[in-house]
Amino acid sequence: MRAGGLSIRIVIKHEDAPLQSSLIEIKTVPTEVSGPYRNLTEPQKLAPGEDFYCSSGQVDEEGNSLKQKDWILQVNRKAHKGEIHSDLAGFTYPCKDENCKPTMCTEPLVLKDPADENTPKK
Domain boundary residue among 64, 79, 94? Predict the structure, then answer.
């Protein structure tokens, strides 16, 4: 392009976008959680307000499409000898007791597996 005898050159450099940081609030402080699922590819439609049960793009042992939630649970089970472990085990948060009175709860290490209704919380 020429403007008054001068050429104009615009250089555009594209770089890889950084991974989104996942901040959660712990004791009123935004804290980054770099959990074991950061390496999993994300479905194209993953965004706030989108369906967590959308296809992950992965298949199970029978070749059926895995939903995103099921895929994450499968990865968690394989990493913990069949149990579902919380990434936030030990953190405390405000909750209500069985009488609906405010109290503090602590996130357990082993969570109830949605695939097994008989799994006890530890």
Answer: 79
